[in-house]
Request: fold
Amino acid sequence: MDATAVFAGGCFWCMVKPFDSLPGIKKVISGYTGGTVANPTYEQVASHTTGHTEAVQITYDPGVISYAQLVEIYWRQTDPTDAMGQFQDRGDSYRPVIFVNNDEERAIATASRDRLAASGTFDKPIVTQIEATQPFYPAEAEHQDFYRRNPWRYQIEEMGGREQFIKTHWSND
Reply:
C-alpha cells in the first residue's frame, strides 16, 4: 500500500527532482499546505496572506523506500538553519517544514533532526519545523514537473544558490 510524505523546503520547483526518480517513488506533486484558504492559487500564496507553504507531496511505496530515507534526502535539499525561506526564496511560504501524518513519522523526523543538530554539519541551530499534515492542494499545472518542462530556467533561476549550499555542506559525507 502506498504512503504519502509532505515536505516544504523553499520553492516547490526545486523539491521535486531530488525525489522524483528514486526507486519506490510513485509521484511527486507540487502544491500548497498549511494555510487558511481552500484551493489557493499561486498568486494568493505568493501574496503571503494565506499562511500556505509551498511543498511537495510524495507518494511512495514504503516496501521500497522508507519514510526515514525520505527525511534524510529532504535534509540534503534545504538549509535547515533558515526559518524565513530557502536560498533566494524568501518569506513564510518558503519556510522549511516536515509535515508528519502520525506519531511514528513525528518520532522519525524528530530523531533525524536531532542527529543532524548533533552532527556539527551546521554552525547555526536547526530551525526546520515538524508539524502535523494539513490539507494539501496541488499547484496549477504549470508548476508540475517544472524541472523537466523548463530545464534551463530551473537550472538558472532556482538551483544556483541551492546547489552551492548542498556542495558546501554535504560534499564530505
Summary: Helices lie at 12-20, 42-46, 67-75, 103-119, 146-149, 151-158, 160-170. Residues 12 and 96 are 11 Å apart (CA to CA). The mean pLDDT is 85. Residues 3-170 form a domain with the Peptide Methionine Sulfoxide Reductase; Chain A fold (CATH 3.30.1060.10).
